[in-house]
Amino acid sequence: MLQFIVKRFASALLVMFAISVLVFLIFFATPGVDPAARIAGRNADPATLAQVRHSFGLDRPMPIRYLLMMRHLLIDRDLESFVNRGSRVIPQIVQATPVTLSLVIGAALIWMTAGIIMGTAAAALRGRAADPLIMLVGVVGVSLPAYWLGEVVNLITQKQLHSSVFSWVPPPGYVGLDHPGQWALHLLFPWLTLALLYAGIYARLLRGEVVGALNEDYVRTARAKGLSERRILIRHALRCSLIPIVSLFGLDFGALVGGAALLTEVVFGLPGIGKLTFDALQNLDLPVIMGTVLYAAFFVVLANALVDILYARLDPRARHA
């Protein structure tokens, strides 16, 4: 198992290196892309452009530029924004990370709990009226766009019914963990909005896995031994059906922490990684974009590695795949 873990993390490092090279080439080596013009301004003369290229090392060979960029970003951590001079990239990412983690972790707890309960209940009640009803609720949740749903939630809680029903709901924004009550209140509806989009997916996937597991030979053997249906469902069918759920959760969690919760953050005014990336794209701030892309890639690659390790732990056959 230790050998598998070392091998998996070594491959993750290679993937991160390849992503960093690819991102650098896209942002700084694509024909027609001139970071110096972005830094110097629209009407800069050739002498100013040459000075900017020299001061930022943009006139040096491409491999040297890549190494300098990675050193400033990852080692010295003093890489600055091209748009907001003096504003460093890493502190912006560090400041935004707790916001995104707070949003995604809270939403993940809700959607995993709801998805497991809904999927297991639908499988246990298959063939009855409650089964398609539960799945219908899941489909409705998946079908609602995050931006639209968030706007509707804000309209109801902040305007239409704010004075009568939702007067306890604070305005959109974020409060740190040093005020736990306000932190949870500000994130409650963002959690529910994001969780609603994923709970239905997990419920439908889990229902199919549990129904398939209930028809396996080991479940028939358990029934022949006289085990109750509830114990068979929870201890045998559900336990074996969670493996694909774990894999999907790792991928979704890594992507959301990496910035895929952008729409939810924008609608609810949360200054997370997604919002930071959105603002950088609006201004074509290449260092910030590169930093957030590498940050996102790190979490996605890390999530994949952890999922593979957990999968290998649950199923030893995966260690030799």
Task: Summarize the SSE layout with pairings.
Elements: H1 2-28, H2 35-40, H3 46-55, H4 62-75, H5 89-124, H6 130-143, H7 146-160, H8 180-213, H9 217-224, H10 229-260, H11 262-267, H12 273-283, H13 286-314
Helix pairs in contact: 1-13, 5-6, 5-8, 5-10, 5-13, 6-8, 7-8, 8-10, 9-10, 10-12, 10-13, 12-13
Write down the CATH topology of the largest domain.
MetI-like fold
Instruction: Provide the succession of SSEs.
Output: HHHHHHHHHHHHH
Beta-strand proportion: under 5%
Biggest sheet layout: none
Shape estimate: globular
Question: Helical content, roughly?
Answer: over 70%
Structural category: mainly alpha
Mean of the pLDDT scores? 81
Amino-to-carboxy terminus distance: 13 Å
- Strand tally is 0
Any idea what the CATH superfamily of the largest domain is called?
MetI-like
Give me the number of helical elements. Answer: 13
Structure description:
With 321 residues, this protein is mainly alpha-helical. The protein folds into two domains: 2-89, no CATH class; 96-315, MetI-like fold, CATH 1.10.3720.10. The chain contains 13 helices and no strands. The protein has helices at 2-28, 35-40, 46-55, 62-75, 89-124, 130-143, 146-160, 180-213, 217-224, 229-260, 262-267, 273-283, 286-314. Helix 5 runs parallel beside helix 13 and helix 8 (180-213) crosses helix 10. It starts with a helix and ends in a 7-residue tail after the last helix. The relative contact order is 0.14. The model has no long low-confidence stretch (mean pLDDT 81).
